[in-house]
């Protein structure tokens, strides 16, 4: 298993038919996942289309994830947690400045994804909302207020996705305090043939 160190990120290729297992090694740690069509990086993972077609914000096993062109990019085929987030943007230096009041903020998942994708020609403005694996966000049905709660994932919990096209994938070990119950931990991942 490959390990993403706390508050860092990586990019890699996931070919059509390959599976990606993302593991919460120690528990209560979010992983931000972003992907692009390897052959045309103008096609990317779309939270809006995925949520629209699934008719739910609680995406889990059996749900296809769509691109901005309404093509299926991957499916979740196993999920031991069943609660993730696809509403909130990847944390960034601006997140830490605006929400946490940090004067010297960490670059966050957004900055880590920017760095991981730079050699592939993907600019910061081309990184949209990520699929926040293991992140636990609740929405008040009356007011619409969102709350970030500790992840429900325990040590060893995982999801497995299967690629429906050749993908360029970015994956992080999230850097935001609230998202990870105020402790930064590693994320494990492996590509399965």
Give a quick set of tags describing it.
193 residues, mainly beta, 5-stranded antiparallel beta sheet
- Based on CA atoms alone, the radius of gyration comes out at 15 Å
Order of helical and strand elements: EEEEEHEEHHEEEEEE
Helix content: 10-25%
Strand order of the largest sheet: 1-13-3-11-7-6
Discrete helix count? 3
For the termini, the CA-CA separation is 14 Å
Overall mean confidence score, pLDDT: 97
Structural class: mainly beta
Tell me about the biggest sheet? 6 strands, antiparallel
Number of strands: 13
The proportion of residues in beta strands is: 25-35%
Low-confidence regions: none
Outline:
With 193 residues, the protein is mostly beta strands. The protein contains three helices and 13 strands.
Topology:
Blueprint: E1 2-4, E2 9-14, E3 19-24, E4 31-37, E5 40-44, H1 47-54, E6 64-66, E7 72-79, H2 93-98, H3 108-118, E8 131-133, E9 136-139, E10 146-149, E11 158-163, E12 167-172, E13 187-192
Antiparallel strand pairs: 1-13, 2-12, 3-11, 3-13, 4-5, 4-8, 4-12, 6-7, 7-11, 9-10
């Amino acid at each position: 298993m490959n390990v993403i160190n706390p508050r860092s990120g990586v990019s890699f290729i996931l070919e059509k038919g390959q599976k990606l297992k993302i593991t919460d090694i120690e528990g209560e740690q979010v992983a931000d996942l972003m992907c692009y069509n390897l052959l045309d990086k103008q096609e990317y993972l779309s939270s809006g289309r995925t949520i629209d077609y699934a008719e739910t914000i609680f995406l889990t096993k059996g749900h296809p994830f769509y691109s901005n062109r309404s093509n299926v990019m991957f499916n979740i085929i196993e999920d031991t947690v069943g609660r993730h987030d696809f509403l909130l943007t990847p944390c960034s230096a601006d997140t830490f400045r605006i929400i946490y009041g940090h004067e010297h903020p960490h670059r966050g998942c957004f900055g880590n994804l920017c760095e991981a994708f730079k050699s592939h020609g993907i600019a910061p403005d081309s990184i949209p909302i990520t699929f926040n694996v293991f992140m636990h966000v609740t929405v008040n049905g009356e007011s619409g207020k969102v709350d970030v709660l500790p992840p429900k994932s325990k040590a060893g919990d995982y999801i497995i996705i299967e690629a429906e096209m050749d993908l360029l994938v970015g994956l992080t070990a999230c850097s935001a305090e609230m998202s990870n119950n105020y402790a930064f931990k590693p994320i494990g991942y492996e590509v399965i043939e």
